[in-house]
Design brief:
Distance between the termini: 22 Å
Helix content: 55-70%
Largest sheet: 9 strands, mixed
Structural class: alpha/beta
Mean pLDDT: 77
Strand content: 5-15%
Oligomer: single chain
Radius of gyration: 29 Å
Number of strands: 9
Strand order of the largest sheet: 4-3-5-2-6-1-7-8-9
Shape: globular
C-alpha cells in the first residue's frame, strides 16, 4: 500500500493560523472577570502571557549570529550580506559586546545598563568618533543596536559578536543567549590560518550542540591567495581538517572585501580570482536565502507548536491543583501543608545525595585526567630530544606554544568525556537540568605555563603549526615538513643541546601547574552541575508549594463557590481537550 499519510505535509502559514485559532479559544477566560474570580488571577495571567509569547513567534524575525575569532572580517561580511556599509569594520574588537542589526527606521543606539540609551548619528558611528564616545562610557554591558529599512532584515535579525579570542572567555550573557537561540550561525575564519584547534573546539562544543541551529563555515580573505591553484590547495587543507573533527560540515571560501567592491562597482582586490570569488559568494548568498525561507516556513510554526504544548502542560498542572482543592475537606488542609514540609525535607535529602554523587564523579574523572595527561607529558618530554634536529631560534618560536596548545587540547578532550557523562546523569533527573548545563570546555583558562617565550611568534603561526601537527595524530609527524617549508632558505647556525636541557628542566614545573589547572577545571564543572541541581530542586519545590497553596485556598471555599469553580474548571478542561485532540493529528 502507498504510504499516503507519510506524504502529507503542513503549510507553515496555515499551521501558524491554526495555532492562533486555538489561542482564541482561551480568550473568554482571559477577559471575563468571573473566571479570574473563580480560577484565580495567577492562571488567567499565565494564559495571557503564554498567548502573547506564542503569537509573537509568528512576527519575530529569524536570528542569524555571526561569530569568529578576532580580525576575521565578520563586520565586513555582514556589510556584504546587507549590501550596505552598516557595521563599522575597524573599531577595536574588544569595545562593543554585541552589534544587533534589525529592521526598522534608520537609527543607531548604544544600549547601556539601567535602561539607558544613547542615540548616535551616522557620523558618530565612524571608527574614530565611536572610539572617543565609548571611552567616556562604562565598559560593561555595552551593546550597539542598529536599525535599517533593508528588505532582508524583515526576515532576519543579525547579531555581530565580538572576536572570540580564547573561545568565549569574555563573552557576556547576552552573547551566550544569542548563540543558544540562533536559528543559524555563520562562523568566519581566515584562509591564512584556517580552523585552529580553538576554533574547531568552539564549533564542536558551543555551536553544534544547538539542535535547531544551522551552521555556515566561511573562509574569509580568499582574495589574498595568489591564484586558483592556491585556493585549491587551501581548500584541500581545510577539508582534511574538517574530516577529522567536523566530518559533516562543508565550507565556502569567500572575500567580503571583494564582494563589497563588486557591489559598489569599485576596483576589486584580486583580478585573477574575480570569477571564483563571485561564484562562491553567490553560492553562499543563495544557500542563506534558501535556509531563511525554509526556516520561516517550518521553524517558526514549530516554535509556536512547541510553545502551545508547553502552555497546555503548564495550565494542566494548575487545573490539577484546583481539582485537588475541590475534593479536599477543610480538615485536610493542615495535613497537606504537613505533607509539603515532609516533601521539602525529602527533596533536600535527594539534592544532597545527587550533589555528593556529582562530586564523586568529578573526583574519578579528575584522577583519570591527571593520569592521562601525565602520559602525554611523558611522551612530550621523551620527544624533546628530537629538538636537536631543529634550529634553536625555531625551537624558541614553536615549542612552548606547541606544548600549551597540545596540553589544552588534551585537557579539553578529557573534560568533554566528563561533561557527556554528567549530561547523561542530569538528564535522568530532568531534561530541564541537562539542557541548561551551559558547559564550555574551550573556555577553560590555560593556567599551566611553559617558560620559553618569543614575542616575534604570532598567533597565526601558532595556529598553523599546532593544527598541522596535532590534528594528524602525531606530535611531530608534520613538524619537519612545516619547518622545512617555513625555513627552507635558513641555515642552521647553532645547535640546541643547552636549549633542550633547559626545556627538560621545566617539565617538573609544568606537571605541577597543569595538575593545578586540572583541579580548577573539574572543580568549576562540578560547581556548575551542583548549581543547576540546586536551581532545579528550588524550582520544583516552588511549583509544589504553589500547587498546595492553591489547593488549600480552593478547599476553604463554601460548597456553592466550589460548584462554580468546578464548572469553570470543566469549561477550561474541555477547551484543552479539544485542542489536544486536534494537536494529536498534526
Amino acid at each position: 500500500m502507498m504510504d499516503i499519510q507519510g506524504r502529507i505535509i503542513y503549510d507553515g502559514n496555515d499551521l501558524s493560523d491554526l495555532i492562533e485559532s486555538y489561542l482564541e479559544k482561551f480568550e473568554r477566560f482571559r477577559y471575563d472577570y468571573k473566571y479570574k474570580t473563580l480560577l484565580g488571577e495567577s492562571i488567567i495571567k499565565k494564559l495571557g502571557n503564554w498567548s502573547t509569547n506564542i503569537k509573537k513567534q509568528k512576527e519575530n524575525p529569524l536570528t542569524l549570529v555571526v561569530c569568529g575569532e578576532f580580525k576575521r572580517g565578520k563586520s565586513s561580511l555582514i556589510n556584504a550580506i546587507l549590501g550596505e556599509d552598516v557595521v563599522t569594520t575597524n573599531i577595536t574588537t574588544e569595545t562593543i559586546t554585541v552589534n544587533k542589526i534589525s529592521y526598522g527606521a534608520h537609527k543607531n543606539e548604544i544600549i547601556l545598563q539601567g535602561g539607558k540609551r544613547l542615540v548616535l548619528s551616522d557620523d558618530e558611528l565612524k571608527c574614530d568618533n565611536l572610539k572617543n564616545i565609548l571611552a567616556d562610557l562604562p565598559n560593561d554591558s555595552i551593546q550597539l543596536e542598529l536599525k535599517r529599512p533593508l528588505e532582508i532584515l524583515k526576515d532576519v535579525t543579525i547579531i555581530d559578536t565580538p572576536g572570540l579570542g580564547d573561545a568565549m572567555k569574555d563573552f557576556e550573557e547576552d552573547v551566550r543567549m544569542a548563540l543558544a537561540q540562533a536559528d543559524a550561525v555563520i562562523y568566519v575564519y581566515s584562509v591564512a590560518y584556517p580552523l585552529s584547534l580553538n576554533e574547531q573546539l568552539f564549533i564542536k562544543t558551543v555551536i553544534k550542540p544547538q539542535k535547531y541551529t544551522d551552521l555556515f563555515l566561511l573562509g574569509n580573505y580568499a582574495d589574498m591567495l595568489e591564484d586558483i591553484e592556491s585556493c585549491e590547495r587551501v581548500q584541500n587543507t581545510i577539508d582534511q581538517r574538517l574530516a577529522n573533527v567536523l566530518p559533516d560540515e562543508k565550507t565556502i571560501m569567500i572575500s567580503a572585501l571583494d564582494e563589497r567592491c563588486r557591489q559598489k562597482g569599485a576596483k576589486r582586490p584580486n583580478a585573477e580570482l574575480e570569477d571564483f570569488l563571485t561564484q562562491n559568494f553567490d553560492k553562499f548568498r543563495e544557500e542563506l536565502r534558501r535556509l531563511l525561507t525554509e526556516k520561516r516556513e517550518c521553524v517558526l510554526p514549530d516554535r509556536m507548536h512547541r510553545l502551545l504544548n508547553g502552555m497546555i502542560a503548564n495550565i494542566k498542572a494548575d487545573i490539577t491543583a484546583i481539582a485537588e482543592g475541590l475534593s479536599m475537606e477543610q480538615g485536610e488542609i493542615a495535613q497537606k501543608l504537613k505533607e509539603l514540609d515532609a516533601y521539602k525535607d525529602e527533596q533536600i535529602e535527594e539534592q544532597n545525595k545527587l550533589s555528593e554523587h556529582v562530586e564523586n564523579m568529578i573526583d574519578v574523572f579528575k584522577a583519570n585526567t591527571v593520569g592521562w595527561i601525565e602520559e602525554v607529558i611523558n611522551k612530550m618530554e621523551a620527544e624533546a630530544d628530537t629538538l636537536n634536529t631543529y634550529p634553536a631560534d625555531d625551537v624558541k618560536k614553536f615549542y612552548s606554544l606547541y606544548c600549551l596548545e597540545t596540553l589544552q587540547n588534551a585537557l579539553t578532550l578529557c573534560m568533554d568525556e566528563c561533561i557527556e557523562a554528567l549530561y547523561d546523569e542530569l538528564d535522568d533527573i530532568s531534561s530541564d537540568v541537562s539542557k541548561n548545563m551551559a558547559f564550555d570546555t574551550s573556555s577553560v583558562s590555560t593556567r599551566f605555563s611553559f617558560a620559553l617565550r618569543n614575542k616575534t611568534w604570532t598567533a597565526g603561526d601558532n595556529v598553523a603549526f599546532v593544527s598541522a601537527t596535532v590534528l594528524n595524530g602525531s606530535y611531530w609527524s608534520l613538524a619537519t615538513d612545516l619547518l622545512g617549508g617555513l625555513m627552507r632558505e635558513r641555515a642552521i647556525k647553532k645547535s640546541v643541546p643547552d636549549l633542550v636541557s633547559e626545556i627538560k628542566a621545566q617539565y617538573l614545573e609544568l606537571r605541577i601547574s597543569i595538575n593545578k589547572a586540572i583541579s580548577e577545571a573539574y572543580d568549576n564543572i562540578g560547581a556548575k552541575a551542583k548549581q543547576q541541581l540546586s536551581a532545579h530542586f528550588e524550582s520544583e519545590l516552588a511549583a509544589c508549594e504553589e500547587r498546595v497553596t492553591r489547593s488549600a485556598a480552593v478547599a476553604k471555599q463554601d460548597d456553592a463557590k466550589k460548584e462554580e469553580i468546578k464548572n469553570a474548571l470543566c469549561e477550561l478542561e474541555d477547551v484543552i481537550k479539544e485542542i489536544e485532540a486536534e494537536l494529536g493529528s498534526i
